[in-house]
Amino acid sequence: MRERGTCLLSCPRGHYGTRSPHVNTCTKCREDCVSCFNRNFCTHCHQGHYLYRGRCENSCPEGLTPNAALRECNDCLVGCEVCVTRNTCTRCRAGLYLLHGQCQHTCPGGFEPDRQLMECISQVHCQVGEWGDWGLCFWRGRDYRNFVEVRRREVLRHPTLYGDPCPKVKEWRKCVIKRRPSPGILVIKVKCSDLFQFSHILHCPLLFHRKIRWQRH
Hints:
Elements: E1 2-3, E2 6-7, E3 15-18, E4 25-28, E5 33-38, E6 41-45, E7 50-52, E8 55-57, E9 64-67, E10 72-75, E11 80-85, E12 88-92, E13 97-99, E14 102-104, E15 111-114, E16 119-122, E17 127-128, E18 138-139, E19 147-152, E20 155-157, E21 170-174, E22 185-191, E23 209-215
Parallel strand pairs: 22-23
Antiparallel strand pairs: 1-2, 3-4, 5-6, 7-8, 9-10, 11-12, 13-14, 15-16, 17-20, 18-19, 19-21
């Protein structure tokens, strides 16, 4: 082989040999190639470039991961579409779920599929707090005998889609209002003609019932 007028047994690094009936020469590889088979096919790349199908690329295409030591693009694991290393996937192919850098057909126990992210996420069950105190007894509905009281508890943690659902956080029970005993009955005697004149006394004091006796004179 000839390079700059010198005959060599083989071409130096960064060059490739071409043969013809008249002369054999060493031709320099492309600038991004450390070594090459011919002008269009690199066999080794400079640092910061990765070999892919005979070319030195700045980055590897999807489905391949850059091997910094060999300076080449290697295949990701089966089922992986994008990976940062051969054993660490960041996106799986359609129908597979990502879990800890690996692609799974189904999510293992303790995990559930997130079909939007296409990842296996930790399964979360509902968690509630303690019951609060019973509230005031109040009338509910049309029946005057229907008195109830309510108590509640808070949801501390909401469940994921396949986690255990929340139990009831509100419950009712019947109650009875304890009435104060009436200390007496106010009896008011008024004349028909005085009914409006003394109307202010028709309002009973607290805890008294009103009873009016009509007397005609």
